[in-house]
Amino acid sequence: MSETKMDDIDMPAFTGRVLDDAGAEELANAKDLAERRNLYRIGTILTAVGVVCAGLGVLPMLVMGARVAIFVVGLIALYMGVRRLGLARFGSDFDLTFILSCAWLTVLILAAILAPLLPLAEHEDTTKTLAAKSYASPSLFSSHPLGTNNFGLDMLARSIYGARSSLIVAVAAVAIGILIGGAIGILAGYFGGWVDRIVGILTNSLLAVPALILLIALASVLQPNLRNVSFALAVLAIPSMVRIARANTLVFSQREFVLAARAMGATRWRVMLREIAPNVALPLLSLGMVMISVMIVAEASLSFLGLGIQPPSPTWGNMISEGQGNVFEQHPYIVLVPGVFLFLTVFAFNMVGEKAQKKTGGTREVKL
Amino acid sequence: MTRTVIDKVIELIVVLFVVSLGTFALVSLIPGDPSVAMLGEGRSPEEYAQARADMGLNDPFFTRYWDWLSGALQGDLGNSMVPPQGPVTDSISAALPVSIQLAVMGLFIAIVVAIPLAMYSARHQGGWIDRAISACTFGVLSIPSFLSGLLLIMVMVNYLGWFPRSQWVRVSEGLGQNLYHAILPAITISLLEMAMFIRILRSDLVMTLKENFILVAKAKGMSNARLLFSDALRPSSFSLITMLGIVLGSMIGSTVIVETLFSLPGMGSLIVRAAQQGDMPMVQGAVLVIAVIYVVANGVIDISYGYLDPRSRRAHV
């Protein structure tokens, strides 16, 4: 076995695209059958080990600490094994982290949409859970797989309903940002002159207040509900959208098809709407993909600070803030359950967003 | 060059002016009557009318804005609406040093950790440590600071018992204790910045290490460390400096969250509490002060960039 292969096996399987790219290049050369067979063999072994370990971790046989450790080791082995099988089967284009991200987002979005139809326990109404056990520990095969909070509300149901509000708010904010920011950016880029200058000063002024501070200031005057939080977040999204739309408009308005349209007698509005807008839409959408994760974090931060959507309506942020104080010393899962949901979702959106950005060649603009 | 700097400064002043106008206009968006918020409910209509007149609410918008702005320029941001109703400026000047200390410590930790890691990564590009570091930074960028802070408290305070929790010791009560209490919050603040720095610096270093002058240095037999620190670091740090502006914004954000999480008496807790209580003069003052700091810092970074990197003088602005 060559030295590079040894490296691959010792490599801890953190998820990450940079890692996959670097590894995939080496593995792409593994065209000859022997190497591929090797990949299959190691992949199968690792997958088997992973399944066994993860299975042992789930079954209630050992002490809690040992179970968690075995489970994590199992997951890592599983990831490494499946990645090798995928590389052997589909070639170097196989990007397991990306596939897992898409899978997580699909499951989460479906669960969020279908939440009222799913057989979930109570998530919001504390009067219905008076008899339920509060702070029930997570146990996968009980009626509360992820445990309950201090009111006996089911953590799984709350997480899924939390996903609902997070996704609604983030998508709505990005959509508003694309529409308003895109329109303003195209106007500024196409007209230039004083329109451009005023728009420039206004966007710079919005960017002059750090994102979270702007959000807190807006939250201090708005009633915290889904609609207002979406609008407040959209205010954060607009400046970057304006910048990207303006920059792209400047480029596209020099192109021949715009000249042709103008030569054929198209009005300015028609040129902007029919010729420029469709071209500007693509970079805006790809920036939007990246921004969704920023918006999710922003909304969670606001809820965490107690300025966003108010409990008992669940959001990931206010669920995590329930664990503040001394609660999470005894019941760490109060923080960990929504925390894992938040992390996986943000990670997945970052992953997908970065892929979209690479395809359209832009950069990240905002980060809270 | 001088012209660019003057243009920049004029732009900064205009932006700050618009920001102050926006901040002030926030108040008129508030639902409800500020006099009720100040006196509480159940007073007579005359008392409310008197309070409104005292607050100058009957004047036209621009008169009130001008009063507020000229006061702000002289260091008077009005009085808090929440008991004990002290001057906003006093609260802010008490809170600001705490936040600045946290932010500076966070930035320091981030840079001190990021530079060697990025160098190692770039030098051993594609190795498993490089890949592990890249994966970790990508993961860390997906963890909001309130989550990483809680996890750090969980492990460092509750489980290992290495650090105390939720206390702030002023520098006057002993520098050692002060640093000891500030270190965990500062680490929390530094995490996101650290990850960003590593990513930026690594990609720039990888480019620099391909340059001819590095090859020359290698051929001369320079040691690895000398090569990286004295030859490669400076030309690779320009994107980092450009990014500092953006990083600063995200750092102010994490400072707010971390202060709330660890209950430290900084600007973050101040503005969050004020927002929760609807204490508008306090919110306005805090937003204005933070915006001024942020805008000026960004301006300084922009201008100094022109001096640091001669290539950007023409192309920029």
Automatic annotation (TrEMBL), chain A:
Protein name as annotated: ABC transporter permease
Alphabetized UniProt keyword annotations: Cell membrane, Membrane, Transmembrane, Transmembrane helix, Transport
Chain coiled-coil ranges: none
PROSITE patterns to which the protein is assigned, alphabetical: ABC_TM1
One Pfam entry name: BPD_transp_1
Keyword Zinc set for record: no
Organism encoding this protein: Rhodococcus parequi
Membrane topology summary: Multi-pass membrane protein
Similarity annotation: Belongs to the binding-protein-dependent transport system permease family.
Regions crossing the membrane: 39-58, 64-82, 94-118, 167-191, 198-222, 228-245, 280-309, 333-352
Keyword Nuclease: no
InterPro entries assigned: BP-dependent_transpt_permease (IPR050366), MetI-like (IPR000515), MetI-like_sf (IPR035906)
Localisation per UniProt entry: Cell membrane
CDD domains: TM_PBP2 (cd06261)
ABC transmembrane type-1 domain ranges (all copies): 163-353
UniProtKB/TrEMBL annotation, chain B:
InterPro entries: BPD_transp_1_N, MetI-like, MetI-like_sf
Main location: membrane
Entry-linked SUPFAM superfamilies: MetI-like
Alphabetical list of CDD domains matching this protein: TM_PBP2
Positions of the ABC transmembrane type-1 domain: 96-305
Signal peptide per UniProt: none
Sequence intervals crossing the membrane: 12-30, 98-120, 132-159, 179-201, 238-262, 282-308
Location of this chain's protein in the cell: Cell membrane
Superkingdom of origin organism: Bacteria
A Pfam family this chain is assigned to: BPD_transp_1_N
Membrane disposition: Multi-pass membrane protein
Keywords: Cell membrane, Membrane, Transmembrane, Transmembrane helix, Transport
Family: Belongs to the binding-protein-dependent transport system permease family.
Protein name (Swiss-Prot/TrEMBL): ABC transporter permease
Taxonomic lineage: Bacteria, Bacillati, Actinomycetota, Actinomycetes, Mycobacteriales
